[in-house]
Amino acid sequence: MNLQRMVVMDLETTGNAPKKGDKIIQLSAVIIENGKIVDQFTSFLNPQQPIPVFIEELTGINHSIVKGAPLFKDIAPKIEKLVEGAIFVAHNVQFDLTFLQSELMESEVNPFSGPTIDTVELAKIILPTADSYKLSDLSEQFSFQHDRPHQADSDAMVTAELLLMFMDKIQKLPLMTLKKLSELAKDLRSDLDLLFDYFVQQKEKYVEELPVSLESYRGLVIGKNEQSSKVEAKECIHYPYTEKKKLQTLKQMDTFEKRTSQLEMMDNIYDSFKNGQHCMIEAGTGIGKSIAYLLPAAYHSYQSNKTVVVSTHTIQLQGQLLEKEIPTLKKLLPFSIMVSLLKGKSHYLNLYKFEQLLKEEDKQYDTVMTKMQILVWLLDTEAGDVDELNLSSGGKLFWNRLKHDGDLISNHKNPWIEWDFYTRAKRQASAANIVITNHSMLLTDVKTGGTTLPEYDYLIIDEAHHLEGVARRYLGRSLDFLSARFLMGQLGTLEQKQLFYKLDQLIHRHALSIPYHPFEVDSLIGNSFEELYEFFQLLGEVLRPMKMTHASHKKKISFHNSSGQKWKKPLLYSAERVYSSVREVEESLRKVVEHVMKYYPTLTHREKVFLQECHLFIKEWEELSTSLNQMILQEEEEEVVWLEGDIRSIPNSLELTTQPISVGKLLEELLYKRKQSIILTSATLTVEGSFSYFQDAIGLKNNVTSFQFLSPFAFKEKSKLLVPTDIPDIQSVSLEEYSEAIASHLIPIAEATKGRMLILFTSYEMLKMTYDLMKESGLLEDYILMAQGITGGSRQRLTKNFQRFEKAILFGTNSFWEGVDIPGDDLSCLVLVRLPFSSPEEPINKVKSQKLQQLGKNPFYSYSLPEAVIRFKQGVGRLLRRSSDRGVIIVFDRRIHTTRYGNAFLKSIPDIPVRQEPLEGMIDVIENWL
């Protein structure tokens, strides 16, 4: 490949479909010769058609800029000459090249016929852990000057700089890795194989020495495996009990601020560990909660040589602890400690499987791309954790074949055991003073009797308000149609040529003596598929007659006390047939695999990996029958079983779920009784200053103390809470009317706050209605409106985009009520559209309410209200994230003032001045305040 001349091009266009007449409005080409940028050609172009408003907003290019510009045909000969004999490069090359070819042919000039390089494709390979492959995000990550995103000259120059940086990184890759990348790249969409080939040829000219941080083994280059051991106390170091000593320790922090509550919280936790007590701590925003529990945990672990486990609910908090809080903690301590992160085994790459599947010829694009990403990632990763990778959805499917599923079947030695990521993570966790994990892993460990986490007696549960919900999910079960169909697709009949066919081929290939007939098992498999499909069809018939609520097509039906329903018997009979046929398949497959295992030493490595896949599949297939048995055939009185789905998509959307009504007794037996001391902390555990609701929900009654520390932020001076008086009562009007009233108020409020507004909803239907009304009004054309589930992107992506634009409005539901951190001027107005009560028709809520009534309690005051108050507190907590923040909270739900129970919400949040105003008065308050 001749790398002497490359042309990096970017185009701005009137749309994305040249076939429908869309035209180029700006073109820029950066010329690279011998690895250096030598020239740039840029021109606006007259499209001879109007430029859509959206394109004007995106690019800043309008009609007045292009009206005097040349037509494309005027510059076509120059472009033809420019790209002739060069490599054509673009960020998403297919888009730019398709437009260019269309315009060249229309101008009766030869289209480009040379090789192409797509820098998006290249970025995915060279930067497998990047959060985003958008040009603006990559330029920000590497601090490239990119003053005018979405203008061709700026975009083309940044793309050229990225290309040169990627080429430099490729040059530094080990030859062994490069050769594998070069081979795989032949199946990519752009001609990256030519690029990799070039560097392979360059590297082969001299003898390569690997850097000390890398080693090669069995054809792969991988980061060296560093061994680590537990830090044990070598001298007696006392915990800093006095305030003076604690302050001396904390003053080493870069952002030190004396907070008495933080000091008290440290002592509470240290004393709880020493006295073997459980402890509940509500720590308001700004206390410095993470350091307040990590410091005493480190001292206790160092002094006692015992592991302390820290469990979080979200990956974000895990990341924050590892990247920010732990390095800070290590600076504060007068001794060394070891901290490790441990996740479920399916998070970790199985190197033996990867080695074998790398040899498998599979030209499927996502599979090829994922293999290439992992080859580069192996040079840097210490954890081997899939969460580090940015995989496509197809890549995630391929990961299912690469993930760890425990040890190799049988006692045969894994050649990669010394490098195995999961084994390493478990070994590090066993040696660590502090092990960070998540609630899911914690509950899995509890459920399996302590087989995943290292032995521990001391536990800190952060984000503890989630413990009940996670415990219900992990101590329950679920079975959905798509997962069942995926399993059926994996297994397949002989005709479908999937796992069972491959197993049969392996047996024939080695002429193994197996006492079974393939057609017999094939018939069992086909029968089980038919029974499963029929069962889910019956479930669909149960759901269809249900009444629809509002605009939602999603329905739920509880199976609790449903024995009198006429649909129950046919469903039971169908479930029995499914259970029986699935068990027969499982037993047959198990026997076949056990027989094949006798010939294990004679099999190839790839066949051994395939047997592992079979082994894992049988476990997952067994889970299917167990779930069905426990949910339908053995209904427990203390569990709720329900069916949910979208009637527009039956059976695809169907899911059966079972959860315990109460998790208290289970947690008492499996967790509280077995641990010396558990600390449960969160910013939202109390209702009107009391922990009783939280205590009842999680069943923690004995040997427990509690402390509440209010946020040190000056809420009284920094915030106001406004309730509009001219909004209809939410329970007296339809969803449509309420959404219209909300939208008509939000538009002038948005103008008063100049955007910078987060609007929290409790239902997606209302969010969508309000968003559509505000968008269609045409009154907010200067504002960027972003909505969860509408404008696309994850919560993190939406939050990041919201912070990038000055006049932005963000609409969120459910997950946006907590964990969203938007400090400073980016957020100055928080809107809570309605009080966050859960639907009383939710199966778990319905049965809980019935149980409370049977006990003579009021379900609303004992359950619904406290749950809503805690959620409300989480929502309010989004506004002030730093001591310098200020802003206004608007609660549209007038029940906060018009009902007896409304006061419970106001009494549970910090002391914020509350005002009731009509819209006009509210606007005055906001404008004066902000």
List the helices and strands and how they pair.
Elements: E1 5-13, E2 24-33, E3 36-44, H1 53-59, H2 63-66, H3 72-83, E4 87-90, H4 93-106, E5 116-118, H5 119-126, H6 135-141, H7 152-171, H8 175-184, H9 192-203, E6 214-217, E7 220-223, H10 243-250, H11 260-275, E8 278-283, H12 289-304, E9 308-312, H13 315-332, E10 339-341, H14 351-359, H15 365-377, H16 393-402, H17 421-431, E11 434-438, H18 439-447, E12 458-461, H19 467-474, E13 477-480, H20 481-491, H21 499-509, H22 518-543, E14 554-558, H23 568-597, H24 605-633, E15 639-646, E16 655-660, H25 664-670, E17 677-682, H26 692-698, E18 704-709, H27 715-718, E19 719-724, H28 735-753, E20 757-761, H29 764-776, E21 784-787, H30 795-804, E22 808-813, E23 829-832, H31 843-854, H32 859-876, E24 887-891, H33 895-898, H34 902-907, E25 914-917, H35 919-929
Runs in which pLDDT lies below 50 for 5 or more consecutive residues are none
| Shape descriptor | globular
Under CATH, the topology of the largest domain is which?
A: Rossmann fold
Using the 3D structure, state the CATH architecture of the largest domain.
Answer: 3-Layer(aba) Sandwich
Q: What kind of sheet is the major sheet?
A: 7 strands, parallel
Oligomer: single chain
Pfam families: DEAD (PF00270), Helicase_C_2 (PF13307), RNase_T (PF00929)
Function: 3'-5' exonuclease.
Keywords: ATP-binding, Exonuclease, Helicase, Hydrolase, Nuclease, Nucleotide-binding
Enzyme class: hydrolase
